[in-house]
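Structure representation:
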Amino acid sequence: MTNDHEGGTSTRRLENKRALILGAAPGNLGAVIASRFVEEGARVAVAARRPDAAEAMADELGVTGLVCDITDGAAIDRAVGEASSRFGGLDIGINTSGWGLLKPFLETTEDDLNTMAAIQFVGPFRFFQALVKAMTGGGSIIQISSVTATIMMENHAAYMGTKAGMDHIVRTIANEFGTQGIRANSIAPGGIADTPMSAGGLNIPQIANLYNREIPIGRPGVADDVANTAVWLASDESGFVTGQMIHVSGGQTLRRNPSFADIQGAFGA
């Protein structure tokens, strides 16, 4: 994808920037961001938990495919080291990993909490530590957060709490490493209708209608909405933006998530 300027040549917004995207697998949000970054001229490495996913992404997009389980600190260090070595450094690092656990607060077990913390707090923390060390010339760190880090959703406490906690870590990174040219920001999507985590529900008309009522723009998000924002945050255009959570939710934080009672009512339960 190019941006044409009247009287000039086409330019790509991430030309020659070096990016590592953690959590990308075929069909998910990380894959859409990776594809868009390639179109915008970036040199991209994707890190997936499963070797087959990493290989499929490499074959599909012509990117570097790495294997990395976000719960394994040594694997994180290897992935960041391999990407940095291959590209001669890193300019962009994005965490798209997550676990969308839906479970009542009183039924959430210690095992659930330990797994959630490993995927959505400890792992991203370690990833960002490795990125800061690798970004010797500065760079852009991006965390994919969630609208639910700000507004309530029932039976989602462990997910929401760890996402909100990482948003504050992102602000810490922005505060402590800005003088090294490192910017850090979060993107907070609402439900995304064309990726695995929330697509199933949002493609059921009764549920989609409930969400559309709570979104001022009147539609659920799609992966391209998030990718557009990621391109901007990764580019030099956003060079004075750091420590921010940017909501990409159609304005849903002005309203709310539907309650479970709303959803049951929509199906006549």
